[in-house]
Write a structure and sequence with these properties.
By secondary structure, this protein is an all-alpha fold. The protein has 10 helices and no strands.
């Protein structure tokens, strides 16, 4: 029993060491070695390793490209609350890469990441609202998310924000700005 407790306590340290070694392997130009190290840490439940492994599968780095395996590993990290994994999984659903195209699933994962403050996901969610894909088309919501992402420095969101202005009247612009300001204020108060 004592051995089992020690093993459970040491697993995060082992996974962390694998991730550090995997980063070093990538920096040294050894993607196959990095893949093996990330895989070991990912199988141990390390969300950062799962995201890195997913990326490698999707893009064929150190392994033959396999977007469905990439989706699997993004999903593993996403359910742990990893914002970048949630956004990337949303992108796979949006494009139908490694999964069946499903805009509602894309919206779900983008929203989870957006609510954590990931500007890229906020922009992506705004795009879905602008297009009416996976969510009901809503230019006020689209504009709000573009404003929020733009406040986080997302350049594309700033361009998208300007595009939505042609579909909004003055009252709607004010409403979306108030919603964005309230969202940003709440994040600041929570220290995020």
């Amino acid at each position: 029993m004592r051995v089992l407790i020690w093993m459970v306590c040491l697993l995060p340290l082992v996974a962390q060491a694998d991730v550090s070694a995997a980063r070093a392997a990538m920096a040294a130009g050894e993607p196959q070695r990095a893949f093996a190290l990330y895989q070991a840490a990912a199988q141990g439940g390390d969300a950062e390793a799962q995201v890195a492994l997913a990326f490698m599968y999707v893009h064929g780095i150190g392994v033959a490209a396999n977007p469905s395996q990439g989706a699997h590993w993004y999903q593993q990290a996403a359910v742990q609350g990893h914002a970048q994994a949630q956004n990337n999984l949303g992108a796979l659903y949006y494009h139908g890469q490694g999964v069946v195209q499903d805009f509602a699933q894309a919206a779900h994962w983008y929203q989870l990441a957006a609510l954590q403050g990931l500007a890229e996901a906020q922009n992506n969610l705004g795009v879905l609202y602008m297009q009416g894909r996976g969510v009901e088309q809503d230019f006020v919501q689209a504009h709000k998310w573009f404003l929020v992402a733009g406040a986080g420095g997302h350049e594309e969101a700033l361009r998208n924000r300007n595009r939505t202005l042609r579909w909004l009247n003055r009252r709607e612009v004010v409403r979306s700005r108030e919603a964005a300001d309230a969202w940003l204020k709440q994040r600041r108060e929570l220290g995020q």
